[in-house]
Amino acid sequence: MKKEKNQFEQIKIELKKVLKPHRFNHTLGVVKSASKLARQNGIDVCQAEMAALLHDCAKNFSNHEMLQIAKDEKIALDPIMILEPQLLHGPVGAVVAKKKYHVKDPEVLSAIDCHTTGKSNMSTLDKIIYLADFIEPGRDYPGVEHLRKTSYDKDLDMACREAFDNTISYVMRIGGLIHPRTIEARNYMIIEEKYQINKE
């Protein structure tokens, strides 16, 4: 536990140097929200805080840098990610977390990887980091208070479905590209809940 705490504090010092101030403050907010959600849902708090701390570690990379790292690390590149390289900051961030910050926990790396788009069959930790990114205290957008209430007072699946719906609606309104992983994540949860498929 002490070793994990020391690693966390050292990474926080490093990230403060490389992230823009507003991004670092956002990261600390995500850590706070992820910690609360982890406690409420019986998830290892150290895991949640580490994933939250590193979720945007590649956010300041240029599009060229992210595409190059993705190619070098053989991250699957689909047409939408090539057109919108910022979507890669999750998968690339997982690589950076592993190689630069020496994070080995596959659950933490998965949560970093999918925090932007979501994915099918998300773990509880995946859902926590996805939601914490949306509801951290610094976020201020229409509907955020309702999403916070759903996240903290009800259940993660309901909150994730709401977040997916909000994201898809917003991207449609601005004429943007919706990544297939977001559609797949939403559909997986609806199938699991409504049709009782995938549930054990």
UniProtKB/TrEMBL annotation:
Any GO molecular function: bis(5'-nucleosyl)-tetraphosphatase (symmetrical) activity
EC number: 3.6.1.41
SUPFAM superfamilies in alphabetical order: HD-domain/PDEase-like
Pfam families hit by this protein: HD
Every HD domain range: 23-138
InterPro entries the UniProt entry points to: Diverse_Catalytic_Enzymes, HD/PDEase_dom, HD_domain, YqeK
Alphabetic keyword roster: Hydrolase, Iron, Metal-binding, Nucleotide-binding
PROSITE patterns: HD (PS51831)
SMART domains: HDc
Catalytic activity: P(1),P(4)-bis(5'-adenosyl) tetraphosphate + H2O = 2 ADP + 2 H(+)
CDD domains documented for this protein: HDc (cd00077)
UniProt-listed NCBIfam families: bis(5'-nucleosyl)-tetraphosphatase (symmetrical) YqeK
Name recorded for this polypeptide: bis(5'-nucleosyl)-tetraphosphatase (symmetrical)
Organism annotation: Pseudoramibacter porci
